[in-house]
Structures are given as structure tokens and as C-alpha cells.
Amino acid sequence: MGVYYFSNMKNWLAASLFLIAVTFTAVDASAQCAMCKASAETSLEGGSTAAAGINKGVLYLFLTPYIIAGTIGFFWWKAKKKADA
User: Fold this and answer.
1) pLDDT digits (tens, 9 = 90+) for 31-46
2) If residue 50 lies in a helix (H) or strand (E), which one and from where to where?
């Protein structure tokens, strides 16, 4: 039918750990829109914590699709494992 790249748990675990390592070892980047960046800089100069809120919002928007895809993948894997048994 097809080749399963993650046919055993060891390969899947290695791929997951690699993805996590790449995700959390990123270097500092300035990837905000100009208005968001200006707002964050202004709030930092004023002593506000709005910049931290903007950064948390960006991380939330970044991680949500991965969490959804991971959940779907987990249930798909669980159903496949049950069907094979």
C-alpha cells in the first residue's frame, strides 16, 4: 500500500524529539509587523507588559495548528494500532 516512515515507536519518538529540539532552540528573530513592533517597543519603554502579551499571542497562534495536528495524528495512530491488533 505505502511506506510508513514512522512504522515503529522508536522512529516516531526520534522525529518528535528532533521537531521539539528545532522548535525550542530557535534564535531571536524580529518577525513582527511594523505596527506590532512599534507598539511593543513603546510599551516596553513605558514600563508596560503589553510586549510580553504580544509575544505570548504569537506563540499561541504558532503552536495551535501543531497541537491540533498532533492530536489528530495521535488518534489516527491509536485507531490504526487498534485495527492492526
Assistant:
1) 567 777 777 778 778 8
2) helix 50-84
